[in-house]
Structure formats: structure tokens, C-alpha cells
Design brief:
Structural class: alpha/beta
Distance between the termini: 53 Å
Number of helices: 13
Largest sheet: 6 strands, parallel
Strand order of the largest sheet: 3-2-1-4-5-6
Oligomer: single chain
């Protein structure tokens, strides 16, 4: 749909900021709203238009994109008289790129439809580096024709763009991604805890096993940081806990027992209680005798 020109973008954090820059680079006029204006002065300086609130950011746009923190934040920006659904122009596309509950995605889709809006859930993977490079993986749920209409917008932000089926399916696919990460992250942490505690040179062990069958994105890009005592967040432990909690609830609702997910979630929650929620997910290694 070539005539999509004006985009509202709500939630301009680590990921959102790079996504806004890539949309502007692709020629879209981007209006933004986030809780703390001071944190986005740089993108305003680069041409993003500042809005005072969610309602103003939703009005008069061809598409409204959100990437906020938690399901409660998603509810806050979409519902109520000051929310997106009540204020977006009929016919516009509303795209939630937050990782959130599939059931909430279905609720947004249904309420949006009543208001004459096209809603999609389109969570992303690829982290802050993928957001910067415009190489995110996008997992979309909703109506196929809406997905096709939004493709140029998605292409400005990502490369691996997938239509997963009905509303909520984008979020379910993101849950599959996070479930797979949970086990891989824990496995990589355990390998190097074992190496350290049996007297191996950890760096030499990493070099030896990280390029073969044991190698993974979690080992090479995440756990490798812990080996250098770098616990800065590429992805916050607290946000991973949020994602795993949603996956755990959805698994129970589908009557499946995911033992490894439950165990990793419980380990991460203990670390959060010890004040590590703002560290990166590589801090899972601190659960062990490291």
C-alpha cells in the first residue's frame, strides 16, 4: 500500500529508537510519544515529531506502532478514551510490536475491528543490534491482507518478516522463540560453569566448543559476555522473566508441561529478587557457583 506515509510510534526505548530512525530513513513521517521526552531529544533532533500524549500520536496517522514494556503498558496505551483504539482514524493500521500476551493481542484485534481499525500483533526478535541494523525478525498475527499492506513498513525495520496466521499467532511464535532461548541460555551457562569448576581455561574452552554443534546465538552473543564479566543488558533479565511468565501461562492454558522453561524462569526470578533484574540475561550464570 504505497500511500502509507504518516506513522505514529509509541514507546521509544532501546529498540524503538532504532526502529524510528529506520522508518524515517525509509521516508516515513514519524510522530512519537514516550513517557520521558528527555530520552528522545536525539530522535526529535533528527526529525521525529513529538506528541504530548498517546491520543495525539494516534490521530491522523496511517499506521500506529507500539513497543512498550509489559502487558499492563500495552493495555494502557490501547484501551480507554485516551488510548489508541479510541483515537486512531478509522481505516488505520495499529501494530503492537511489544512481546505480550497472545490473549491480549486477540482482545486488541477484536476491539480494533469494532472501531474500523486494522490491528496486528508483530513482536520482534534480534535485540538492540538487529533494531539498529534494520535486520529484525518480525512475527506477525492478524489478517493476511493487513499484513500485506504493512509489508513496506515492516521492511523498513526488519528482514525476516513472517506471517504466522490469525491474531495472537505472532505472540505465540515469539513465545516459541523465548522458550527455545531459555533452555539454550541455561545450557550454555552450565557448560562454562562446569569448565570453570573443573579447572579448564574458560576462554580456551569457549574457543574449542563455540563453533561446533554446541555453538548457539546464546553462547556466542550472550553468555560470551558473562565470561568477560560483562553483565550489561542487550536484553534485560526482567523482560526475559516477563516473556517466560507469559509463555508459562500460555503453556498451562494449552495443557502442556514445559519443565525446562519452568526451571529457568524460577532461577531467573531468584536472581531478580537479589536485585539483578536490570542486568542482561547472561547474568543467569550467577545462579551457579561461578
Amino acid at each position: 500500500m504505497g500511500q502509507m506515509k504518516k506513522i505514529g510510534f509509541i514507546g521509544v526505548g532501546i529498540m524503538g529508537k532504532s526502529m524510528v530512525r529506520n522508518l524515517m530513513k525509509a521516508g516515513y513521517e514519524v510522530s512519537i510519544y514516550t513517557r520521558t521526552k528527555a530520552k528522545v531529544e536525539d530522535v526529535i533532533g533528527e526529525g521525529a515529531l513529538w506528541c504530548q500524549n498517546v491520543a495525539e500520536c494516534a490521530k491522523g496517522r496511517d499506521a500506529v506502532i507500539t513497543i512498550v514494556g509489559y502487558p499492563k503498558d500495552v493495555e494502557e496505551v490501547y484501551f480507554g478514551e485516551k488510548g489508541i483504539i479510541a483515537n486512531a482514524d478509522a481505516g488505520s493500521y495499529i501494530i503492537d510490536m511489544t512481546t505480550t500476551s497472545p490473549r491480549l493481542a486477540v482482545r486488541i484485534y477484536e476491539e480494533a475491528k469494532k472501531a474500523g481499525l486494522h490491528a496486528m500483533d508483530a513482536p520482534v526478535t534480534g535485540g538492540d543490534s538487529g533494531a539498529k541494523a534494520g535486520t529484525l525478525t518480525i512475527l506477525a498475527g492478524g489478517d493476511k491482507e493487513d499484513f500485506d499492506s504493512c509489508m513496506p513498513v515492516f521492511q523498513a525495520m526488519g528482514q525476516n518478516i513472517n506471517y504466522m496466521g490469525k491474531a495472537g499467532n505472532g505472540q505465540h511464535t515469539k513465545m516459541c522463540n523465548q522458550i527455545a532461548i531459555a533452555g539454550t541460555l541455561a545450557g550454555a551457562c552450565e557448560a562454562f560453569v562446569y569448565a570453570k569448576n573443573t579447572g579448564l581455561a574458560v576462554d580456551a574452552c569457549f574457543e574449542a566448543i563455540s563453533t561446533g554443534a554446541a555453538g548457539s546465538a546464546q553462547m556466542n552473543n550472550v553468555v560470551s559476555k558473562a565470561l568477560k564479566d560483562d553483565f550489561n543488558p542487550g536484553f534485560f533479565l526482567k523482560h526475559f522473566i516477563k516473556d517466560m511468565s507469559i509463555a508459562d501461562e500460555e503453556a498451562e492454558a494449552a495443557d502442556v508441561e514445559l519443565n525446562i522453561l519452568k526451571q529457568v524462569l524460577s532461577m531467573c526470578r531468584s536472581l531478580e529478587e537479589e536485585g539483578m533484574g536490570d542486568l542482561g540475561t547472561q547474568s543467569l550464570i550467577k545462579h551457579y557457583k561461578w
